[in-house]
């Protein structure tokens, strides 16, 4: 099982898809095969539901109870800037496909950094800088 860890909500959380059933639930909830869903993420053709389901089910696979995962998504995904939420979901789905290196996790971008970057119009620079700092 490949576990992805990222800051989400109130701290760093583990995300994973350790079972076939959880992957199939992701496919059922999004109406897409996992390969098609990954392609949608790569082409920026995803829906908000795609993003929140990847996060919710990834949290469950990482050990969060279903009730807590639902609450975390309700509180911390809905109403937040989409770029911030997408960054977490993208890391989770990418980890599902390629695994994750425990020593080189994709860095969490703090919400304040995303907001400041959005205000200045330089979100891509903030993301690129965070990636450089992590050595990825």
TrEMBL record:
InterPro entries per UniProt: Phage_TAC_11 (IPR021791)
Record's protein name: Gene transfer agent family protein
Lineage: Bacteria, Pseudomonadati, Pseudomonadota, Alphaproteobacteria, Hyphomicrobiales
